[in-house]
Amino acid sequence: MKASTDNYQADHWKLRGGPAGLHVFNRTTGLHVLIEEIPVPASLHSRAPRQVSIALTNRCDLACAHCYAPKSRDELRFDVVTRWLAEFDSHGALGVGFGGGEPTLYPDFVRLCQHAARETRLSVSFTTHGHHIDGVLAEGLRGSVHFVRVSMDGVGATYESIRRRSFPELLARLKHVRSISRFGVNVVINERTLPDLDEAAVVAADAGACELLLLPQMPVRGVPAVAPRTLQGLRRWVESYRDPLKLCINEASADGFPICDPLVEERGLRAYAHIDAMGVLKPSSYHETGVPLGEGGVLKALHQLAHELAESDV
Ligand code: SF4
Known about the structure:
The protein has 314 residues and is α/β, with parallel strands linked by helices. The chain has 2 domains: 1-45, no CATH class; 46-313, Aldolase class I (TIM Barrel), CATH 3.20.20.70. It has 9 helices and 13 strands. A 10-stranded mixed sheet has the order 10-9-8-7-6-5-4-11-12-13. β8, α7 (197-207) and β9 form a beta-alpha-beta unit. α4 runs parallel beside α6 (167-180). It binds iron/sulfur cluster. The site of iron/sulfur cluster (SF4) has 11 residues, from loops.
């Protein structure tokens, strides 16, 4: 009896030490508890970022204008990714988010999620356009994925003009997504999608989503950053939103929004790092340069990246 209790705890809870205290995380429920009363000496602070995103492949069968992923066939090797996951896990990372490109096009995607869930205590999530998620894929992922993020830029004709896929088809796919795990909806915010936000939030909540991630459009390859007036409109929308979805925003766009961040001392590389499909470690997916992950492992590359970022700030 005792052994099964221990197994339950080992599988569901993870501890992370940091400047704000002891961080307890349950990957199954998504519950975070920060115990500020327990000071953690600096020598015991977790050395890995809290969350890591990994672009498994640059391949994608859509062609969204705002996409930052290079259109190439670069893909990460399975054994290399699993080695990185083990290292991140043992140094205190809480979660990994797989992306791309489109991660469901990665040949070993199901096996990789199953490996990550079984061999690490990381929370496993992925970001997808959703159009390949059917009953078979959902069944393969169920139990090995703790959260799914589905990209949905606007609704109806807005969505279809950006993604060039059927919106009703996406809604049908959300039924399969819902059967995998808790899920959220990502919306790139620009002047076309902002007017749809009320309806997008209703559609997402009705489909069973628990979170709406707002991603103000970043400048990429000739596509401009979101216009200041659109950003102001988004701030007004956020202030007036009263419905049930949890609203989130990426750190780079959070200025001026009413955010709750109990881990203010854990920003930058302490909070988040990205590995692109060529194996380059970056502060975010939008950064064009970073540190190639060689044989030295992720912690060594993190150290070098932190050093380079500090130098560029001087
Ligand atoms: S679905 Fe995602 S990866 Fe594919 S083109 Fe659109 S933004 Fe890029």
